[in-house]
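Structure ticket #2291
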Amino acid sequence: HESITLTTSVTPETAAVRWFKDGTEIKASKKCVIKSEGASRTLTVNAAESTDSALYTCQTKDDKQEFRVQVKEIPVKFAKKLEAVKAEIGGSVSLSCELSHAKGKVTWSRNGVEIKPSKRFQIREEGIKRTLTITGIRAEDEGEYSCESRDDKSSVTIVPK
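Resolution: structure written out below.
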């Protein structure tokens, strides 16, 4: 999720360059920022993902500089797991946990079935905190609720009374 910055120098300072990713030319965008200052030529790839792993090349008319880039994904673990909560029929309950870093994606599920946000099921992300709030609890909401990241899982059982 960090930025990749590749820098090289050219002579003469006016030399035009083209950047390539695995042989395909890179066009400037929000994701790929291309800069030219004096003799310096820089490519910044923002919010790197594993799909940005590649052989990057900065090419002038008759020379090139290659950069082999390997993006490693930080494991998304739970720093704070789900805790047991009391659920009363008709009431509401919030399940929350904390991740090892703020960019982690999670999936909420009940008895193995993914929960999609709705009027009764609100899903929130605030920094490293992930929260599922269930309103208007019914007897059929009983079950094992889990929050799952790419690398970890936390579960808790809810039995409405």
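Closing remark: The CA atoms of residues 111 and 152 lie 17 Å apart.
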